[in-house]
TrEMBL record:
Signal sequence region: none
Function: Adenine glycosylase active on G-A mispairs. MutY also corrects error-prone DNA synthesis past GO lesions which are due to the oxidatively damaged form of guanine: 7,8-dihydro-8-oxoguanine (8-oxo-dGTP).
GO molecular function: 4 iron, 4 sulfur cluster binding; 8-oxo-7,8-dihydroguanine DNA N-glycosylase activity; adenine/guanine mispair binding; metal ion binding; oxidized purine DNA binding; purine-specific mismatch base pair DNA N-glycosylase activity
Catalytic activity as recorded in UniProt: Hydrolyzes free adenine bases from 7,8-dihydro-8-oxoguanine:adenine mismatched double-stranded DNA, leaving an apurinic site
Cofactor note: Binds 1 [4Fe-4S] cluster.
EC number(s) stated in the UniProt entry for this protein: 3.2.2.31
Family matches, as SMART domains: ENDO3c
Alphabetical list of NCBIfam families matching this protein: mutY (TIGR01084), PRK10880.1 (NF008132)
Cofactor: [4Fe-4S] cluster
Coiled-coil boundaries: none
Zinc recorded as keyword: no
GO terms, biological process: base-excision repair; mismatch repair
Name of the protein in its database record: Adenine DNA glycosylase
């Protein structure tokens, strides 16, 4: 790490001057900054861009205006409103945390300290800092992806930020620059600089208030920082997704186990191969007729790639009931309010036509 010729106070002065003129101040969660509203926004914004989050956030707030409404809701409905945002563990943890807040804290978020707030499911040190600083105005440093990018470039911090030693170095810098006042503005400003100027691919260095002191910019190495996680070749798996339709055009779905891949979401039945698919059909729906497979496509997870082959089948006689809990006939014309895995939603949307 290289020090820059700028005091913490001078850094903050530049940051606030830029934010006052260019910062984002009309995002939905910047009004009525309760811990609940800020918390929901911070969880949604993890690994997701602001423009994508806004409509989801607004629908979520309309349905769950406070933590009590969220805690009382069935998980299916929470996952349904999350469908399309991805990283569904965030939604499950959001739901769990809401119930903890209601049952153990009387509906009040434990914002007295980062440590207390971090005990809730899905809330780490940086997210807790953002919730506290934005909703209460108390000092609590943050170190999300945007802030990491700004600090690593500004100081030329070597190494992948996911390494504990590098992360500790960045936390020291985050502590150094975090002020004692204007905490909501400071937290938002740091996020905004990273999201709108110090972007991953094409940083707008000419517009940055720190371009004259930025180590990465001085070296012409902006895109080298922060260093990427050492890459591994993603393994590839294959699956067949059965798209079984009844005479009314409804599609058969099963609910995934609560934990694991697509936990708690509703999915098309999956099989390793055609033989397993046909054996299941012979047992559950012996009158179903297989149709030609659709084109295979790939869905990429953080740790593997899943190659999905849509495998249609059709029932020509009414079959009104399902044999087990965790199963349903999904009406594509009048969809149920259930959470769907992204590739499943894609296939169901195609089934409408």
């Amino acid at each position: 790490m290289q020090d820059i010729p700028l005091t913490a106070e001078a850094f903050r002065q530049r940051l606030f001057a830029w934010f006052d003129e260019h910062g984002r101040k009309t995002l939905p969660w910047q009004f009525d900054k309760t811990p609940y509203r800020v918390w929901v926004s911070e969880i949604m914004l993890q690994q997701t861009q602001v423009a994508t989050v806004i409509p989801y956030y607004q629908r979520f707030m309309d349905r769950f205006p406070d933590v009590f409404a969220l805690a009382e809701a069935p998980q299916d409905e929470v996952l349904h409103l999350w469908t399309g945002l991805g990283y569904y563990a965030r939604a499950r943890n959001l739901h769990k945390a809401a119930r903890v807040v209601v049952e153990e804290h009387g509906g009040e978020f434990p914002v007295d300290s980062v440590e207390a707030l971090s005990t809730l499911p899905g809330i780490g040190r940086s997210t807790a800092g953002a919730i506290i600083s934005i909703s209460t105005g108390r000092r609590a440093p943050i170190l999300d992806g945007n802030v990491k990018r700004v600090l690593t470039r500004l100081h030329g911090v070597e190494g992948w930020p996911g390494r504990p030693a590098v992360e500790r170095e960045l936390w020291v810098l985050a502590e150094r620059y975090t002020p004692e006042e204007r905490l909501p503005d400071y937290t938002q400003a740091m996020m905004d600089v990273g999201a709108t100027l110090c972007t991953r691919g094409k940083p707008a260095c000419l517009l940055c208030p720190f371009n004259d002191v930025c180590v990465a910019h001085a070296r012409g190495e902006e895109t080298r920082f922060p260093e990427s996680k050492p890459r591994k070749t993603l393994p590839e798996r294959t699956t067949r997704m059965l798209v079984l339709r009844d005479p009314e055009g409804r599609v058969f779905l099963q609910q995934r186990p609560a934990s694991g891949l697509w936990g708690g979401l509703w999915s098309l039945p999956q099989f390793d191969d055609e033989a397993a698919l046909r054996a299941w059909l012979d047992q559950r729906f012996p009158r179903a007729q297989r149709e030609a497979d659709g084109a295979a496509f790939t869905h990429t997870f953080s740790h593997f790639r899943l190659v999905i082959t849509p495998s249609p089948a059709r029932l020509h006689e009414p079959f009104s009931s399902v044999g087990e809990t965790g199963e349903l006939w999904y009406d594509v014309q009048a969809p149920a309010s259930v959470g769907l895995a992204a590739p499943v939603k894609t296939l169901l949307d195609q089934a409408v036509t």
